[in-house]
Write a structure and sequence with these properties.
By secondary structure, the protein is α/β, with parallel strands linked by helices. The protein folds into 2 domains: about 170 residues, NAD(P)-binding Rossmann-like Domain (Rossmann fold, 3-Layer(aba) Sandwich), CATH 3.40.50; about 220 residues, Dihydrodipicolinate Reductase, domain 2 (2-Layer Sandwich), CATH 3.30.360. About 30% of the residues lie in helices and about 20% in strands. The protein has 13 helices and 16 strands. The protein has a 10-stranded mixed beta sheet with strand order 14-13-12-11-7-10-9-8-15-16. The structure holds nicotinamide-adenine-dinucleotide. Nicotinamide-adenine-dinucleotide binds next to α3, α6 and α9.
Length: about 450
């Protein structure tokens, strides 16, 4: 074992040695009370899930003077060296390393965590974090299923924690200004919203093999179904497998449909569709290992406001950005927004001169400010639970082969269609158990 490996798994060995059961955290009465962070205090962070987007979030946050990173956690030691080096160089002190995030959550000196794990882990990571009194920056989509999203929102509310979800488009000027333009009624009455993203991601066919020594594949799989290990199913690629993620509909749909939903709503309590109908499947890559659909067309009918939302992913979109959101008005004008720009077109396609664009502060700073003020950040968990649920409804309809109906007041699917799919809920693999909050 290398020096790095030895150091890396001191925390892991301690956790395993402690024989921590999957649901062996203290009872709710002892939970949820975090340290009050003063305006001039350092905010001490831990990262759960290294090497990918979690590490990117950590690096952005490390640029902020009020942040200190004290601990890193991953179930694969090969994902950690770069992050260990960055933190050590920045603070002159090596971070403590964990394999089991629950051991990290026991630390009283950690105020908040960044959750950068694959989607099938978010619900447990986040609920356990808020139970332990931590605020969180949690990656999107917030959950693997509708039932998880509801429980996460209820837990965050119950423990009064500040959670920013990684939908940073809510903090960039092209999107904030577009949403403000629509909400101010400048485009007119909206009758149709469209959101799209191309999907060029085949992962190939790779025979199952033995997991690498540094990867705890059992822990990586966590509450998902245990499948034979194949290298093209894990890091980065898990999103193309419905056992772990939700395909492009959850991966980018959560960004692009989020903007549509914000534009159709008065605030961050989002308008929700009453009926959702999808068709599609694995049409472009039928022999690929991926199990998520590569072609999806979804129509959503809203009652309030009276509007249709069209979600589309697949091999498409020449002549326009490969992702985007559009709003169409009753008199035929279209507002189009994508990462890096937005414009308004009249019915003939002529550009309408743009307005002055108002700047915003960045998504990570917004979270830090809110952790101190205890106000809700732009992508607060309850609002992102709604967008995530909309994505899951699209997949529920596709998997069920039926129209799925949502009741916003009851915050649930009505009728049976969709409830039998794993995007609605699933049995966790033992010993993992979803803490259910209502
Ligand atoms: N906001 C954005 O723009 C954006 C962009 C990319 C990814 N993401 C999101 O970020 C999250 C991570 O995506 P990624 O592509 O970086 O994934 P990734 O697979 O590259 O990285 C995830 C890491 O988490 C680790 N991990 C898995 N289970 C763990 C556990 N129980 N405890 C600790 N570590 C664990 C893995 O070993 C891996 O190192 C996803 O939710 C994804 O949707 C968001």
């Amino acid at each position: 074992m290398s020096d790095l490996s030895r150091r890396t798994f001191i925390g892991a060995a301690a956790a395993v040695g402690a024989g921590l059961a999957a649901d062996a955290l203290p009872g709710p009465a002892a939970r949820g009370a975090g340290r009050a962070v003063g305006a001039n205090d350092k905010l001490v962070l831990g990262l759960i899930g290294c090497g990918g987007m979690g590490a990117h979030n950590m690096r952005v946050l490390m640029e902020k003077p009020e942040v200190e990173v004290a601990a890193l956690c991953d179930v694969d030691e090969a994902r950690m060296p770069g992050d260990i080096k960055n933190v050590t160089e920045k603070y002159g002190k090596a971070p403590t390393i964990y394999r089991d995030y629950r051991k990290m959550l026991e630390r009283k000196d950690i105020d908040a965590v960044i959750i950068g794990t694959p989607d099938h882990w978010h619900a447990l990571n986040l609920i356990h974090a808020v139970e332990a009194g931590k605020d969180a920056y949690c990656e999107k989509p917030i959950s693997h299923s509708i039932v998880e999203a509801k429980s996460m929102a209820a837990a965050v509310k119950r423990y009064g924690r500040i959670v920013q979800v990684g939908t940073w488009q809510r903090s960039t000027p092209e999107f904030t200004n577009s949403v403000a333009y629509i909400r101010a009624g400048k485009l007119g009455k909206i009758v149709l919203a469209r959101a799209w993203k191309t999907d060029p991601f085949a992962v190939g066919n790779v025979a199952p093999t033995t997991p690498p020594a540094g990867l705890d594949y059992d822990f990586w799989t966590g509450p998902a179904a245990m499948l034979p290990y194949a290298p093209n199913h894990v890091h980065g690629n898990w999103r193309w497998f419905l056992n772990y993620g939700s395909g492009m509909t959850g991966d980018w749909g959560v960004h692009m449909m989020d903007i549509a939903l914000l534009g159709l709503s008065e605030d961050t309590d989002l308008a929700m569709p009453a009926e959702v109908t999808s068709c599609g499947g694995r049409l472009a890559y039928p022999t690929d290992d991926r199990t998520a659909p590569d072609t999806v067309q979804t129509l959503m009918r809203f009652a309030k406001p009276d509007v249709v939302l069209h979600w589309q992913t697949g091999r498409d979109f020449p002549g326009r950005p490969d992702h985007g959101t559009e709003f169409v008005s009753a008199d035929g004008k279209t507002l189009r927004v994508w990462r890096g720009g937005w414009h308004v077109m009249d019915p003939s396609g002529e550009l309408i001169p743009p307005e002055r664009v108002e700047p915003t502060n960045d998504h990570w700073q917004n979270w830090l400010d809110c952790v101190k003020s205890r106000e809700q950040p732009r992508s607060h968990l309850a609002s992102m639970a709604q967008t995530t649920i909309v994505c899951h409804l699209a997949n529920c309809s596709l998997l069920a082969g039926a129209t799925v109906r949502w009741d916003k007041a009851k915050n649930d699917i009505t009728g049976r269609a969709g409830k039998e799919t794993l995007c609605y809920s699933r049995e966790y693999r033992k010993p993992w158990k979803l803490p259910v909050y209502k």
